[in-house]
Automatic annotation (TrEMBL):
Lineage, opening ranks: Bacteria, Pseudomonadati, Pseudomonadota, Alphaproteobacteria, Hyphomicrobiales
InterPro entries recorded: AAA+_ATPase, ABC_AA/LPS_Transport, ABC_transporter-like_ATP-bd, BCA_ABC_TP_C, P-loop_NTPase
Name this protein carries in UniProt: Branched-chain amino acid transport system ATP-binding protein
A GO cellular-component term linked to this record: plasma membrane
Stretches that traverse the bilayer: none
Keywords: ATP-binding, Nucleotide-binding, Transport
């Protein structure tokens, strides 16, 4: 049994009176794909924020990487330690080219020192994400949504993460593009990466996840294999609303 690479204990975050994440515990094994489902507003993206401290950390609770508490480790250092994330919206710098977007991210690399090394890393990250080699110099803001998503994923890959947190990579994509995202995630898993995936596109989520958790109103209400979780009455109720 592989050891846990990323763990959360009792993570909570409130926005005023709203408890967005409530006492969440989770543990992800090396090389595992953990899927995170849940209705809109159930706290999934906020959980990613708390795990990476980007853009903010938890009010309480602890995140551990390889068993080491990250309480006093700032966000940029967590990224350097190998935990990278993407965002629900394609957060790219629109007036920069694809390669310059990824080069900026490569500045955060532990290993690549100097421009030439960072350029190689950025090119490798774009290739690794399946981004077309002919479009490295295209302005990110002029790319279609799928390619902007690949630039964002490549920016995370430029940190050479051991743990990659993907926030709704399939939203707004066509079925063919979603299939390419599935194949990309499968390749990253084959390379040994650990992946946490938030996704509303359930066929993608269930296809790539070894294990699923479901959040509702900030709390984890179910966990297990995709088949177990989908059959769980509490999950059906969370999605379809409580019977009155
Ligand atoms: N920065 C913020 N300030 C105030 N409230 C916030 C903030 N971020 C999230 N929330 C609230 O916290 C709750 C959880 O939001 P979150 O975005 O984590 O949900 P989610 O499960 O990712 O939803 P979705 O599937 O729609 O992306 C929501 O009620 C949301 O409105």
């Amino acid at each position: 049994m592989a050891s846990h690479v990323l763990e959360a204990r009792g993570l909570s975050k409130a926005f005023g009176g709203l408890l967005a994440v409530a006492e969440v515990d989770l543990a992800v094994a090396e090389g595992e794909a953990l899927g995170i489902a849940g209705p809109n507003g159930s706290g999934k993206s906020t959980l990613f924020n708390l795990l990476t401290k980007v853009p903010f950390a938890a009010d309480s609770g602890t995140v551990l990487l390889d068993g080491r508490p990250l309480d006093s480790v700032p966000a940029h250092a967590i990224a350097r330690l190998g935990v990278a994330r993407t965002f629900q919206r394609e957060s790219v710098f629109p007036s920069l080219s694809a390669i310059d977007n990824v080069l900026l991210a490569a500045e955060g690399s532990r290993k690549a020192r100097g421009f030439a090394a960072r350029l190689r890393l950025a090119e490798r990250a774009l290739d690794g994400a399946g981004f077309p080699a002919t479009l490295h110099n295209a302005l990110a803001g002029q790319l279609p949504v799928f390619l902007r998503k690949l630039v964002m994923i490549a920016s995370a890959l430029a940190l050479e993460p051991r743990v990659l947190l993907l926030d709704e990579p399939a939203s707004s994509l066509t079925p063919q593009e979603i299939e390419r995202i599935r194949a990309l995630i499968a390749r990253l898993l084959d390379s040994g990466m650990t992946i946490l995936l938030i996704e509303h596109v359930l066929p993608l989520l269930t296809a790539v996840s070894h294990r699923l958790i479901v959040m509702d109103q900030g709390a984890v209400i179910a966990s297990g294999t995709p088949a177990e979780v989908i059959a769980n009455p509490a999950v059906v109720e969370a999605y379809l609303g409580k019977k009155t």
